[in-house]
Amino acid sequence: MKQQNTAVIVIPTYNEADNIGKMIEYLNTKTFPNIVAKKGDLTQNWDMKILVVDGNSPDGTGKVVEKEAKKYNNTFLLTETSKDGIGAAYLKGFKYAIDKLNADFVFEFDGDFQHPPETIPLMLKAIEEGYDYVIGSRKIKGGSNPKGWGFKRVFFSEFGGFVARFIMFFPFKNFFKVTDPTTGLKVTRVKGFVDKMDLDWKGDRLLTKSFGYKLQLLFETLKMGAKFKEVPLNFHVRNAGESKIEAKTAKDIFRVAILLRWYDDFTQKFLKFGTVGFIGFIINAIFLNLFSTFLNKPWPWTFSAEIAIISNFTLNNLWTFRSQQIFGPSRLIKKFFQFNLSSAGAIVIQTIFGTLAEYLFGPGNKTLYLAVIIVFLVLPYNWTMYNLVIWKNKKK
Ligand SMILES: Nc1nc2c(ncn2[C@@H]2O[C@H](COP(=O)(O)OP(=O)(O)OP(=O)(O)O)[C@@H](O)[C@H]2O)c(=O)[nH]1
Ligand SMILES: [Mg+2]
Questions:
Q1: Mind listing the pLDDT tens digit for each residue in 267-312?
Q2: What integer is the mean pLDDT of 244-265?
Q3: 202 with 351, same domain?
Q4: Cα(102) to centroid(ligand 1), Å
């Protein structure tokens, strides 16, 4: 293992001439000298670098950074041709940090003193403990919003953050783990995570060029299985200069959260699974009526159910679980037999709980009982059986 890791603090700037010089000085003289083995809780020496990605600011931000870069050889400037959105700036910055600066870890960090530099060593400590992805959270114990924020800004941050969190992760474990999905302060391990991302800026890599990229990288990094931790963040009001937060930022965040969830493999599979189930139900009903015209009880029930089972098996195999598709006559027969057994299990569940419900609550609301049993028992049961037995991923 490498003895010394390199961490690059990537700072996007647009018109931050009044802040960025002070920030670079502060990091180099006050923060980095403490990021060495045996200071605080750190056990390693860290090679700390600063990369400013400037959107060709008209206020001379780039000039200030150039001057600092002459003074400190760990400080670098990447100038974009124009202001291209904070998400675009970060992707370009990550690529530069990896290709040119040997980054093992990349930080996302604001240059306007909203992120206290003192949080950096705490995040590196978590990295030393083995985490891959550490973010600063304003919502956990010890974290906070700026004292100077008005009601509107607090409301948007709290409400927007919660909605984003809900849309992206509910009801899964990341919904409970990620308390601050829109935070701007993060550090990510390069090996296995950032180096697996497509950082080439082609314009369509991200769902957005602006602030919503935070959600996308969060979503992707967690999906890659990053070991994740939050540390408290005391978010400040900006030191100087003007806010670049736009009215459309909230809309951007909302849009990106929905798209991420919608295009996620799991969602797509689940929607297809639901659709196939619904088609099966319709087919079952149609054939039940049709067979009833010329067959005696109980056969219409039996044959229509089997036709629905065949439809479900076929459509799920061709569509829902296409990525784990079952091929070949002998495997198809074996799996179809398994599928029938699994469907019989669903019938048993329905019979037991349907009867129980009638016994407990009276025979009145059969349709309601059926709906509840299907949604809360049969669907989860089928979903589990399909994923873990019938179309089980063999790779794992
Ligand atoms: N290179 C580049 N930097 C940007 C761009 N948009 C914002 N930034 C910088 O990224 C940092 C974080 O931006 P935001 O969190 O979106 O907005 P903000 O101006 O910090 O908003 P406040 O919280 O009100 O201070 C700011 O310090 C900006 O200077 C951009 O399009 N390109
Ligand atoms: Mg800011």
A1: 999 999 999 999 999 999 999 999 999 999 889 999 999 999 999 9
A2: 91
A3: no
A4: 25
Are 247 and 289 in the same domain? no
Q: What is the pTM of this model?
A: 0.90
**Atom number in ligand 1 closest to CA 111:** 27
Q: What is the pLDDT of residue 153?
A: 87
Whether 360 maps to a domain, the answer reads yes
For residue 175, count CB atoms less than 10 angstroms from its CB and return exposed for 0-12, middle for 13-18, buried for 19 or more. Answer: middle
Q: Report CA dihedral (259, 90, 225, 138) to the nearest 10 degrees.
A: -80
- The domain of 362 spans 266-390
165 and 138 assigned to the same domain: yes
Residue 87: how many other CB atoms lie within 10 Å: 25
Q: Which residues have a Cβ under 8 Å from the Cβ of 268 and sit 6 or more positions away?
A: 262
Q: How confident is the model at residue 364 (pLDDT cuts 50, 70, 90)?
A: confident
Q: Using the atom order of ligand 1, give the atom closest to the CA of residue 211.
A: 16
Name the residue with tokens 């009880």.
297
Domain end among 211, 244, 263: 263
Q: Which residue has the tokens 């390693």?
A: 44
